[in-house]
């Protein structure tokens, strides 16, 4: 469903404003800011190597595509979807090339993959499908083909359905009881991801002049996305790295 959503979003987007090129940079900044702050807290608390790795993953990783997209559509509307795609344009690339290798360094078994990272990225079907959908939508945008308004009705159904299919398996895999056993790091992660990071990233966006577009709509999108929490496979990393108890 996500490729279909992205094709329609980019097909109907205003891609002539060069200010929008700042959005992917802010997306990368959001990831790094959360990860660095989480590691600094772990160092301050004198956590073990595996616990520090878990804090890094939990602080850095987001779910901008599904969960972030749902809240943006819910609070702002479908017209904001292209900005979600631009903000998370390099999300998976940063995860594969930087975040996963860093997390692996914190693991108990530090092994190096024989296959180059760029080959793993090119072979990842999810990344390639998402990238292709963005390219198709952008090409349709600059072409003379008129926008198919049926996409508005399609996206109204596809966005919430995508999140529902994502949340069902997550709900079965969560260990709610482990939160109480890790209340201090959990509280700090909440503070980092839902207070410090969104305030900082939105403040930077405002200083860069993004608040002038569409009566502050871009700032609202950035605020929602920078406060987005991780879901899906991201939940498994704390357990794998030895922090969360199962």
Which labels suit this protein?
disordered C terminus; mainly alpha; single chain; 0% strand; 246 residues
Secondary-structure-based class equals mainly alpha
Largest sheet properties = none
Q: Indicate the multimeric state.
A: single chain
Query: Into which percentage range does the β-strand content fall?
Result: under 5%
Give the count of structural domains.
1
**What does the average pLDDT come to?**
78
Low-pLDDT segments, ≥5 res: 232-246
The counted number of beta strands is 0
Count of alpha/pi helices: 13
Could you please describe the fold and organization of this structure?
- The chain is mainly alpha-helical and 246 residues long.
- It has one domain.
- 70% of the residues lie in helices and 0% in strands.
- The chain has helices at residues 2-11, 22-44, 49-60, 64-75, 81-87, 91-106, 117-123, 125-142, 150-173, 178-181, 183-207, 217-226, 236-240.
- α4 (64-75) packs antiparallel against α5 (81-87).
- The radius of gyration is 19 Å and the shape is globular.
In short:
With 246 residues, the protein is mainly alpha-helical. The chain has 13 helices and no strands.
What are the SSEs and their pairings?
Layout: H1 2-11, H2 22-44, H3 49-60, H4 64-75, H5 81-87, H6 91-106, H7 117-123, H8 125-142, H9 150-173, H10 178-181, H11 183-207, H12 217-226, H13 236-240
Helix pairs in contact: 1-8, 1-9, 2-3, 2-11, 3-6, 4-5, 4-9, 4-12, 11-12
């Amino acid at each position: 469903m996500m490729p279909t959503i992205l094709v329609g979003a980019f097909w109907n987007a205003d891609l002539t404003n060069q200010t929008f090129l700042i959005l992917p940079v802010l997306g990368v900044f959001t990831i790094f800011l959360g990860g660095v702050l989480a590691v600094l807290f772990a160092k301050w608390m004198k956590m073990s190597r595996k616990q520090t790795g878990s804090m890094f993953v939990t602080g850095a990783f987001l779910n901008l595509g599904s969960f972030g997209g749902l809240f943006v559509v819910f609070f702002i509307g479908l017209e904001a979807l292209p900005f979600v795609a631009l903000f998370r344009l390099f999300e998976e690339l940063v995860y594969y090339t930087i975040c996963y290798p860093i997390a692996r360094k914190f693991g108990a078994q530090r092994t190096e993959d024989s296959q180059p990272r760029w080959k793993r990225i090119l072979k990842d079907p999810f990344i390639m499908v998402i990238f292709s959908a963005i390219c198709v939508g952008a090409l349709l945008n600059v072409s003379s083909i008129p926008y198919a308004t049926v996409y508005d009705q399609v996206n109204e159904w596809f966005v919430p359905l995508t999140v529902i299919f994502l949340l069902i398996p997550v709900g079965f895999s969560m260990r709610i009881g482990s939160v109480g056993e890790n209340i201090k790091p959990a509280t700090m992660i909440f503070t980092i991801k839902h207070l410090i990071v969104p305030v900082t990233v939105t403040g930077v966006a405002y200083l860069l002049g993004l608040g002038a577009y569409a009566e502050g709509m871009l700032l609202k999108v950035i605020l929602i996305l920078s406060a987005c929490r991780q879901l899906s496979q991201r939940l498994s990393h704390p357990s794998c790295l030895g922090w969360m108890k199962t």
